[in-house]
Amino acid sequence: MRKTRAKKRILTPDPKFNDVMVTRFVNGMMYDGKKSVSLNIFYTALDIVEKKITEEPGIETWRKAMNNVMPSVEVKARRVGGATFQIPTEIPQKRKVAQGMKWLIGYARKRNEKSMPEKLAAEIIAASKSEGASVKKKEDTHKMAEANKAFSHFRA
Predict the structure, then answer these.
(1) Is CATH 1.10.455.10 what the domain over 20-154 is classified as, yes or no?
(2) What is the CA radius of gyration of the chain?
(3) CA within 13 Å, CB half, 93
(4) Would you give per-residue pLDDT tens digits along the chain (156 residues)?
(5) Given Cys at both, which of 45, 63, 86, 135 links 121, Cβ 3.0 to 4.6 Å?
């Protein structure tokens, strides 16, 4: 383990929407340091979302999707007297956002559309309507926490 915690890097907001959250999302989607490719995919996906859903801008649909995907509780394994228990715990805000982004990107990649912008757009639309694989993952996480509520008194 290291002696001191790593310093949090300050991210620059993205050029189009001037939003740090978009930068975090794009960084999570990026492969091999190709940020311009990742930005292009994200912006194209938002354009596709705007064309399919006309009543609101793509960035608002993405924000709604992110709120629908972010979990509020999760289970953590903890050993008590030789047995391992799954203990439900509240999630800090930064981890909520990170989990939500990871799930949205991961399940977008697994979709069957032709290109990544199309896959991401479809997953954003599905998540904004509270359906799709990433929202199901959140619901499964919440169900597991609910099922293990009896062990919450083991919390450290």
Answers:
(1) yes
(2) 18
(3) 1
(4) 778 988 988 999 999 999 999 999 999 999 999 999 999 999 999 999 999 886 789 899 999 999 999 999 988 888 888 888 888 899 999 999 999 999 999 999 999 999 999 999 999 999 999 999 999 999 999 999 888 877 777 766
(5) 45
Place of tokens 């609101």: 56
pTM of the model: 0.90
User: Structure tokens of 7?
Assistant: 């310093």
Tokens, residue 98: 């990170």
**Domain map of the chain by residue range?**
20-154
Residue with tokens 């954003």: 124
Rounded to the nearest 10 degrees, the angle between the axes of helix 20-29 and helix 93-109 is 50
